[in-house]
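Dear Dr. K.,

Following up on our conversation at the group meeting, I've run the structure prediction for UspA domain-containing protein from Nibrella saemangeumensis. I'm pasting the input sequence below exactly as I used it, so you can double-check it against your construct before we proceed with anything downstream. Let me know if the numbering doesn't match what you have in your notebook.
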Amino acid sequence: MKNILFATDFTNSTTPALDWVKLFARQYGSIVTVLHVFQPMIPDTTLPVMGDMGAGVAASHDIEEISRQNLTEMVTRLSAEGINCQSEWRTGAVEDEILGAAREYQVDLIITGRSDISTIFDRLAGSAAADVAIDAPCPVLVIPIPHDGVGATRPTQIRSIVYTTQLEFDENHILRQASALAQTFNASLKLMKVDASNQPNVNADDQILRDIRREFGYENIHVDKVESRTVSGGLLEYLEKHDTDLLIMTTRQRGFLDGLLNPSLTERMVLRSPIPLLVFHAKDGY
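The predicted structure tokens came back this morning:
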């Protein structure tokens, strides 16, 4: 992970995400590209106008100037802290510009914050973080605003990693990366499966586990299993009861209609996970 893209909107999700950028950049000696995607205010000409339409244009210009200043100051601070970094300014649709920058810079990891999603409207509207996590050409680390029931801040560390799997596919190519990450940070790595009543097993768990343990060694693989009505519900219940610093999931390419009618588990967890979530992408054919 030598080449990191940090996408920021300078909201309250920036600070916790920036802490994780520093953690990874220092651990891997990475170069960090700090990206801000600006969305100018465009007046709706179909609505009645009261007052000066130019006021909206002026406000948009002021916001742009403030955002440019924020970007410059962030890169300056990171450089002063010894982080090798550069800035990138883009205008357009947030998801498209983040993905475009990721491809142009051939990044190894995208890190982005997730705004506090607290209302049903927020969940229905979705999140740029979820879209990027699903469609990115590289792993994506999504950082929520860290808090628990009383608002305590979580430390920025990687000591305990949970890799969630349904044991239905060969995921050893992703597990190798998860294992390498755990070794780099000297962290524990657990596999976790939710036996959900609404999702029957397609393949027997034993065969997949044998393949995993054949490569990684029986003593190196610990699997926790929990029962729940839904997979996402089981994951959230597990995270409430177990001290976990990082959750890792794998997402697969899905058809448009399938994604529209049945949003992916990964997308749901990007929006709901209370801890940082690292999303890997399965190879074609898995």
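Two things stood out to me. The radius of gyration is 20 Å. The domain at 3-144 is CATH 3.40.50.620 (Rossmann fold).

Best regards,
J.T.
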